[in-house]
Amino acid sequence: MNIINVCKDCGELAEVNEEKSNENWIVYDTECKHCGGKVEMKFK
Ligand SMILES: [Zn+2]
Fold this sequence. Notes:
This protein is mainly beta. It has a two-stranded antiparallel ribbon. The chain is 0% helix and 23% strand. The chain has one domain. The protein has strands spanning 3-7, 39-43. The protein binds zinc ion.
């Protein structure tokens, strides 16, 4: 099972937040860079 982080409003994939991420943990932006909408986690 994969987890994807997508914008609720436009469906754009969230980008990785390089500041908060490290080699063991990947953090995604919680705000869409494209439209400013809220990003949510989805199980695929
Ligand atoms: Zn968006």
